[in-house]
Amino acid sequence: MAMFPPTLPHYFIRRFTEPGDIVLDPFSGRGTTAVEAMAQNRIGIGNDLNDLAVALTKGKLANPDLDSVLKRLDILEKGYSRKDWLTFSGMPNKIRMIFHPETQKHLMYLKLHLDWKNNDVDAFLTMVLMGAMHGQSSGFLSLSMPNTFSMGWNYVKKYIAKHSLKRPKRDAFEVIRHRCKRFLKKGQLPGNGFVIHGDVRDLDRSDLIKHNSVKMIFSSPPYLKVIKYGLYNWIRLWWLIGDHKIIDKKLDDEHSIKPYLHFMKEVLETTLPLLNQKTGLACWVIGDVKELNLAKKVWEDVGSKIEVLDANGVLIRYRLLAIVADKIRDDEKVTKIWNSEEDKSGKATPIDRILIICPEDSSVSIHAKNKDIIWEPMHTGGGLSESK
Predict the structure, then answer these.
(1) Which one of 57, 62, 376, 386 is CB 3.0 to 4.6 Å from 31, fit for a cystine?
(2) What is the pLDDT of residues 361-386, one digit of tens each?
(3) Whether the Cβ atoms of residue 175 and residue 130 lie closer than 8 Å to each other
(4) CA angle 302, 285, 51 (to 5 degrees)
């Protein structure tokens, strides 16, 4: 899943919303926007069609206290008996090649006993486990992987052989426990939130979000021809749902420009009516494609033409506030996928832009003389500035 750094939604949420406001991310991914909203005492709502994205967001928004999490983990660990898992089925060879046999047993046990869909603490533990599945350091359960995305199994097999990698014996309970303590060391978030598992194009019919109630939409639609959301998470998706191909069938990651614009038209038509018509705004993080400023094209070909009827039958149109070019370094983008430690030629969007639009009658203003603005990451001072 593509992900922008937390400082990006943090800035916009802080500047354009107030405590108690609703912040919506229709493509929640790892839950970054909703978590930042909760951290600032807003109501963070996520939505996604991808089971992994829902699991990650649900776990983060569960917002449990550390004692409850550690007690549940202790119960799970005490309930585990190695002798019950001397033999087991249901783990493909391509998964077995990544984890030590003892770690495999832990994963199968947790797969059976963590009820992430119905239990908030289990959802949090599942989110932590997903983050620990594979990576380069001893804080991960797998053998040393070149990145936290799941490269294809044939690539992984060759990578293991090339580097003569051995599967390290990791105690999943200890790895999860350590990560939970680190994750919750600052305590619980002050706000509230929840996630919806569904197609973004159905949000306007959801009973969970009312029209005219959302103060801000901050989201990153699927990147055009950059990320294959199912395939690049096949290891985690095996644990969650059994097969990444289920996600690949749900999600269309191979849009060309024309169908992508049609998709964005449907997205805007179903999400924009949820905005507060007087004070709401929508921020869409959209990556350029080659030399194409895709955010600008989405506005000109789609956004500028959107017209919807409110509950009273009044026609609502939308206006452009700005198209903001970010200055996020390539090495901070999760849209960058490294091929290996030695080969840094992975793909990334040349530049990401934030398309900011609002209802025609909204009072929101960027206070800029032109619509070409740059967002500087917080570690460089942060904020919006007009391009030269």
Answers:
(1) 57
(2) 999 887 654 445 554 554 444 556 55
(3) no
(4) 100
Residue 234 sits in a domain of what CATH number? 3.40.50.150
How many independent structural domains does the chain possess? 2
Q: Encode pLDDT of 245-289 as tens digits.
A: 787 777 765 668 898 999 999 999 999 999 999 999 999 999 887
Give the CA radius of gyration of the chain: 22
Residue 11 inside a domain? The answer is no
By residue count, the chain amounts to 388
Q: Are residues 172 and 207 in the same domain?
A: no
Please check whether residues 210 and 169 belong to one and the same domain: no
CA distance 382 to 375: 7
- 181 sits in which H/E element: helix 172-183
pLDDT bin (cut points 50, 70, 90) of residue 48 is: very high
User: Do 157 and 143 form a contact (C-beta atoms < 8 A)?
Assistant: no
pLDDT tens digits, residue range 338-356?
Answer: 233 333 333 445 578 999 9
Whether the Cβ atoms of residue 324 and residue 353 lie closer than 8 Å to each other: yes
Residue-range definition of the domain harbouring residue 269: 21-62+189-386
In angstroms, what CA-CA distances link 26 with 32, 186, 278, 310?
Answer: 12, 27, 21, 20
Q: What is the pLDDT of residue 367?
A: 60
Q: Are strands 352-359 and 383-386 parallel, antiparallel or unpaired?
A: unpaired
Could you tell me if residue 330 is inside a domain?
yes
